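Q: Structure for this?
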Amino acid sequence: MIAERPVTALIGALGGQGGGVLVDWLVTAAEKSGYPAQATSTPGVAQRTGATTYLFELFPEKNPPQPPLFALFPGSDDIDLMAALEPTEAGRALERGFVTARTTVITATERTYSTAEKVAAGDGTVPARPVLDGLSRASRDLIALPMKELTGGVSPQWNAVLFGAIAGSGVFPFSVDDCRDAIRSKGVAVDRNLKGFEQGVEQARLKAPLPEEEDGLAYNGPPPGFEAELDRYPERLRPIVGHALARLVDYQDDAYARLFLDHLRTVKALDTSDNMALTGEVAKRLAAWMSFEDVIRVAQLKTRPGRLDRIRGELELPDDAILNLRDYFKPGHAEMAGFLPGWLAWMVPKGSGRAGSGWSLHWPTSSAWGFAGLKLLAGRKGFRRAGSQYGEEHAAIGRWLDAIRAAAPVDMDLAVQTAKAAIWARGYGMVRREGMATLDRLLDGWTEKLSDPAALKAKVDQSIILAHANPDADIH
Amino acid sequence: MDGGAAIPVKKVAVGDRSFAEEVRKLQMGAGEEFHGETILCVTKALLQAGVSYIGGYPGAPMSHLIDVMADAKDEILDPMGIQFEQSASEAAAASLLSASIHYPMRGAVTWKSVVGTNVASDAISNLASTGVTGGSLIIIGEDYGEGSSIMQERTHAFAMKSSLPLIDPRYDMEKIVDLAERAFEMSEASNLPVFFQLRIRACHMTGSFVAKDNKVPQFSTRNPVPRAEYDVTKIVLPPASYAHEKHKFEARLPAIREYVRENDINEIFPGAGGPFGIITQGGAYSMVIRALRQLGLADAFGNTEVPIMVLNVVYPLVPEQITGFMAARESVLVVEEGNPNFIETQIAEYAHKARIDCAIHGKDVLPMAGEYTVDTVRAGVAEYMTEFAPEPYAATAGSRYQATRGAVDTANRILRDHMPEPLPARPPSFCTGCPERPIFAAMKLLMRERGPMHVSMDIGCNLFGSLPPFHVGNTVLGYGLSLASGTMVGPALDQPVIAVMGDGGFWHNGVSSGAINAQWNNYDAVLVILENGYAAATGHQRLPSSGETPVGAASEVTIENALKGLGVKWIKRVDSYDLPQTINALRDALDARGSQLRVVISDNECMLARQRRERPQKAQAMKEGRAVTQERFGVDPEVCTGDHSCMRLNGCPSLSLKHSADPLKETPIATVEDSCVACGHCGEVAHAAQLCPSFYRAEGLFNAGPLRRAAHAVNKRLLSMMGAYE
């Protein structure tokens, strides 16, 4: 019996993923195995990081009675194989009708985030798992490739892995050997591509189940000497409180961690929310805020034991290679002045504050003297409490805690939301100054505002939404 | 300010891009099977037709033709005496066809349409008036639909207003190659240059045909035309121009119609001969036949019971062919992409004049405008068949169409159950390490300081500056036209005209319509030229300022010399990756009001090209044990607080997000992916905008010499003593 239709593959690639080479391999494999085939693409602007699509059609008979007619466009519910090295790209193909019950889908388990997701100030990312679940249930079959695990995150042979998975999926009638021949005959990075290809073939064979969803959070245990205090918190809250205490001891000292507990206790005493949500929220926000990153903290983090080795690992440096590390520091007026006590801070020159001006450092942290300099600064923890920034931050923390404590008896949800508003105390430099000013405005006249809790809650909710949104959104 | 010192001539290396394989294929002889993409197959057709000259301006989707020809000098062009030019603009390319006015030389030119045709229109209109003696072919890449980066217009109207034949071939490789060769005969038979149109996907379609020998042209650099000819009737001046206009309609177009009729250029697939049928553009045939197959009305080989008339020449139509097809039918469906629907309205006129009672459908069931994909055509054909075709066709089409819809709806419902929000779109953006990105970060920062500025943009990669995350760029009007198009805006806003232009745009039209115009009129204007050394968007073709001619010989054209020649005095060249330098140059330029035209040249080679060149060099050095450095940027996960300010000033694909393991971090933190090419822009932005101390530049030095290694050992000991290692 003559086949009724060609076998059709739609391949969605992002610029730089090597989609063109992949299609070349497919065409060559078809030629070598003797099946009629055709490919086309819409490269256009695709070399520049946009999404592009390739269409490959093969007639599953070697000597058909007439030349088969191939199409230039995919048709909905007419795609046998949809491959995209990005799960949302596969999802978008589904939205356009190119993934249906007849389609085998090959995609990656990891996301490559789009600009729209990156520019949100909060978490604008779309998770991969629900998209993969949807694809899996809507399609004939899903082959999900853990690309970063397979390729170590290095992109050049992504297309070879995908080619292997296509060959191994059995959707096309050509043999895996024909595909290996295609890679060899193209003669480009043959060994590396064959290695990737075999990984893909193996993945298609394995059809590993989707990885379990995890929150990926790692809690540090509480520092010694805080056991009794920790026991006063319900089981649920102990990981976050313990983590917070460990952070603050690392940041400053035991006394600082106890200051945290003193603050938290006053909130806990008022907390009537389910599961003590308010206390949990405040614990998380308060610890983050109290470990505000001043120059001392940055110096401490940049001289962490093991940091240099971690960075060597990123570059995959062998032992005999030399690491030359330059940290990008730009201590502005606020950072320098914040380091000094208020009565000395006036001495720090203000500068023009214009973009591109000021003191730019490319600090040689991998050199002994560069490291020593930072180490010296990191050792100035003892001076922190005397610095003007410390005073300002803790005054702001006090205003925020007061607002939460005032709100708690009136409206517990409002108190929880007020705790969340601490997100504004983030970043460095101008970002931090603007964020703190926004929070100040929100908390200003709090007692009077509390007379209309509903209106206030709306205001706080709105502020939190704004804190997570893309600040440039109103530009377009 | 530039003191007039000698400007070093730029030298880029297009080098390692080789089209040797394509050049070899183009030399295939009779009987050999030629496999390749359509645009290459058409190139072969030109050689088989005996062209004397070829020219063009690169642009997707037909740049490949120019790339390959530029590499074919020694093997093909010189031995056959064929002239080739990568022209400085489409107008220059179209002007080449002037060679075929007097002399019986076949010639072909190519560009992206409709934009290239617009630029070339002056030459085309004059050529259409004069007419040609030698066969003249204009191959246009019709950039309409998905993947296009230009305004959506079709070339059809252009062909009509200049009375030029427009071939829109059915996408079968043998057919395409045959028609490309016949186009020269058509041109000679009618004295008209001929448009040969290929859509984007068709240009990149793979296929094969049986080759013929290449034909050495009658007249060429190896066999010159005997003498220069003079004939005043070929000059576009009255009274000759009036005669030309009459000649078009009394002789030339009728000659085309006769050729089309006599040679069966348009095709009829009679099907089962029912009282219905489809009239389609050749280029839409493959969509029609796939739609029919999906609707259960055709098999995989295109055998169908639905009668189809394929117009491989969509202008001019041959009325008696059309009326002949319609005479026996109650209705026809016209499948014609774009608007106005010239074919449908002409067909209606023919039917009316011939008093044929046949209902004409088209835009009533198909979309008014936009690309005709398989899905859009299927929807239209299904509606036509169910409403106007007899049973069993109507029922078959209807049920198959509903089945497809059902399958698609089911899949979408399942996805929405898991993922209610729509998935993020992915508009194009600058590549990793693109040297054109920093200028937009600089402008965004300057706007934070000075408020919004109106920036007029140009054609090319630079236009992505108007998209997220930069949002810099208010208008775009054409290639090389950014400066001119800001002319009336700047004074109206009481700010200098700010125009961004690539080096490609500068040479294409920016020198004359932009720089000369602004300088001569004494405009208060700032021109930012992004000099990356290539026509990067279309595949890294050389430019006048690349330091090389299109075929690789040395050239000394520079942007500065051109500007100085116009009397421009304020010129600053900045290292595009040096953000403070860039910001300060822009600030100075904006503030230098009253100094006529100020030009900031933002200089750095296209990173794609640079990487392509440097990667193999580094690998080689590594292999030979020479000292090699390898760089990348990184973000300290503990230091990043996750407010994403850096993302909003950067947009680099390598600068991404990851979820932090720290429970105290609410939002994902920044991360630099392995694809980083260490351009340094992320660090520069963090500096210039005083964002954060998270960024670092890490450089690995391989194969260091003994001295460096000894120093390194000492350094490591000291670091170890300070507790740098775990």
